[in-house]
Design brief:
Length: 316
């Protein structure tokens, strides 16, 4: 009997030890499952948005030819004589976005090189918070800044410039995406190994030569990715162009004329004046899915550029 008691106690002791060993495993499994479910949220959200856009766009393209949608040069779905060509909206979107890039890319890369290669830590601690403030300003504030401040300044420099134009919102959008270009580009520059810098200095190169001919090309993959991501952010901007661009859908590349972008049109129709379920209302989803495809293409280009540079060893 005493032997059986000792064996039972040994088994009980082993079961307790096994429970203690099993507890971390169960905890890790539970945490892994929770994290997996969290990761699926973004996937299912994207699929749900895409499903809504596809279903609602189907009702639009059931009445409007996709060829007319992609090739017609007039966009007047809210007028008596209706035309459904998205080219004017696409042109206005690309025009304001390109102006934004012309402002943000040179300035953002210059600031990134300065912060990465020249600025001392106290100076960096001052400049960084200001960039974060720019990133945190609401876009509607940027919109009224473009309309009430930048446009009057441009009118003094450019006689005959109207109150609504593509130049003013494009400039302000460039200021808005400046922190994105600067931050991601600086991260790419700082990730370049110091051995490359030291090798350049050992060959007698100056600080500027090392920065522009060694560090900058080595970080080109991250820099190009930051530029394309900033372009995607500019393409999807809404309030700045809705307030300051004029909401006039016309096929023009003149930055001094008013334009309408895809996002601005969606805001215009979503204000509630258009009957739900009508053809004009369904244009929202047709434009939205075109915008979705455009940003998806830009993101894929960014991914491909980064992957290409990493494959050939040209970036970090």
């Amino acid at each position: 009997m005493q032997l059986f008691k000792e064996v039972g106690q040994a088994i009980a002791g082993e079961s307790k030890i096994q429970k203690k060993r099993r507890l971390p495993y169960l905890t890790d499994t539970l945490v892994r499952a929770i994290l997996f479910l969290c990761s699926l949220v973004s996937v299912f959200t994207t699929l749900a948005i895409l499903a809504v856009l596809v279903v609602q766009s189907y009702y639009f393209f059931r009445e409007v030819s996709i060829i007319e949608f992609l090739t017609s040069k007039q966009w007047t779905p809210l007028f008596a004589e209706k035309h459904f060509g998205i080219l004017p909206l696409l042109c206005g979107t690309l025009l304001t976005s390109l102006i934004a890039l012309l402002v943000s890319v040179p300035l953002g890369l210059a600031v990134a090189v300065y912060l990465s290669e020249y600025a001392r830590r106290p100076i960096r601690k001052v400049i960084k918070p200001f960039l974060e403030i720019l990133a945190g300003i609401p876009t509607i504030v940027y919109g009224y800044f473009a309309l009430l401040t930048i446009t009057p300044l441009l009118q003094k420099l450019i006689p005959g410039l109207g109150g609504f134009n593509a130049l003013s919102p494009g400039i302000v959008m460039g200021i808005m995406i400046l922190p994105l270009v600067t931050s991601l580009s600086e991260d790419a520059l700082r990730a370049v190994p110091d051995s490359l810098r030291e090798g350049g200095f050992a060959l007698g190169a100056s600080k500027l030569q090392v920065s522009l001919t060694i560090v900058f090309p080595s970080a080109l993959s991250g820099i190009m990715a930051s530029i394309i991501l900033a372009l995607s952010r500019a393409v999807g901007e809404t309030m700045i162009v809705a307030i300051a661009a004029g909401n006039l859908p016309q096929l023009t590349w003149n930055p001094l004329e008013p334009v309408s972008t895809m996002t601005a049109y969606i805001v215009q129709v979503s204000q509630g004046d258009t009957p739900y379920g009508s053809l004009a209302y369904n244009t929202i989803f047709a434009v939205a899915i075109a915008l979705f495809v455009l940003t998806f293409i830009l993101n894929m280009i960014s991914f491909r550029i980064r992957k290409t540079f990493m494959a050939i060893g040209g970036g970090n």
